[in-house]
Specification:
The termini are far apart. It is globular, with a radius of gyration of 20 Å. The protein is built from 11 helices and 4 strands, in the order ααααββββααααααα. It is mainly alpha-helical and 307 residues long. α1 runs parallel beside α5, α2 crosses α8 and α9 crosses α10. The protein has a single domain, classed as ABC transporter involved in vitamin B12 uptake, BtuC (Orthogonal Bundle). The strands form 2 sheets. The chain has a two-stranded antiparallel sheet with strand order 1-4. A two-stranded antiparallel sheet has the order 2-3. β2 and β3 form a beta hairpin.
């Protein structure tokens, strides 16, 4: 295959990665922006979403589309409930102190990881996609006779990967509308701006924090449900999403959702393309170097506000 079609396929793979990373990073940014909590266990909520999706899909077992639809609804709710319980039992008792909550979420990371290992096992488990039609992609070649529409061998994608990209865009747009146009979104933004003033006006800040923490975990679980038919559910799969999400949040600007989405697209696309042409390890190295450059030359991030 020529370089052009090969690059196009790499861009498609990068778009899938960017969609999932943007969705996962938005959840992490939401938790930090409103609660000022660095959730180190965010990757494990991603992992739990994938594992719950596998369990639901295999338990139903009637049709892949039915199992996937049930997983897409139940898994984020279940993971969100686990996150809300973790907030009530752990984070709220620490008064959301930044230093202590980092240690606490590290502890939650190992608890979730080892509990999954004991119940789920060490093996990677696949989830069958609801649909997976192969879509051949035409390619325009420029020759002496003009523009020619060809169908090069191997230039194809699947309908499910396009669905992942579209679904992530719809979910992020719905979240934006929720934050900007609903009463609870206004309460969340008021709590973010001034916790003490929100408390003075009768806003139940602890309840808001529980909902925010659950929402961030549910977004990570949604990303996992979308990607698990492409990858596989595994008890150690939360590491890469956590790393890339932190990178996206830092580059985009701490607490800035538009910046996080933009950085998630940049990181996801570059990770997908570099992984195809070179290696996934090189992609992570370059992403980490990009974080260092951003911290040096623009500490507030791409769209973050300067202190």
């Amino acid at each position: 295959m020529d370089f052009g079609p090969h690059l196009f396929l790499a861009i498609l793979e990068g778009a899938v990665t960017a969609a999932v990373i943007s969705l996962t990073a938005v959840g992490l940014s939401l938790v930090f922006g409103i609660m000022r909590v660095v959730n180190v266990a965010h990757g494990e909520f991603f992992m739990l979403g994938a594992v719950v999706a596998w369990w639901i899909a295999t338990s139903i077992g009637i049709h892949p589309a039915l199992g996937f639809t049930a997983a897409l609804i139940i898994a984020p709710i279940a993971v969100g409930a686990i996150a809300a319980l973790s907030d009530r039992l752990v984070l709220s008792r620490l008064e959301y102190d930044p230093e202590r909550t980092i240690v606490a979420t590290i502890g939650l990371l190992y608890v979730f990881q080892q509990a999954t290992l004991m119940t789920f096992g060490p093996d990677a488990r696949p989830v069958e996609p609801p649909f997976n039609h192969r879509l051949a992609i035409p390619w325009i070649e420029i020759s002496e006779s003009g523009l020619n529409l060809t169908w090069p061998w191997g230039l194809a994608t699947t309908s499910y990967k396009l669905f992942v990209i579209g679904a992530a865009c719809i979910i992020v747009a719905a979240l934006w509308v929720f934050l900007q146009r609903t009463r609870f979104g206004l309460i969340m933004r008021a709590t973010q701006l001034d916790r003490e003033m929100a408390t003075a006006f009768g806003i139940p800040v602890r309840r808001v924090y529980s909902v925010v923490f659950a929402l961030g975990a549910a977004l990570a679980a949604l990303g996992a449900v979308l990607i698990v038919p492409v990858q596989q559910a595994h008890y150690l799969m939360g590491g890469d999403p956590l790393l890339l999400s932190f990178i996206a949040v830092i580059i985009g600007g701490l607490g800035s959702l538009p910046g996080t989405i933009l950085a998630g697209v940049i990181i996801g696309m570059s990770d997908g393309i570099i992984s195809v042409f070179f290696s996934p390890t090189l992609a992570k190295i370059l992403a980490t170097l990009l974080v260092a450059l951003v911290l040096i030359f623009r500490p507030q991030g791409l769209l973050g506000r300067a202190p």
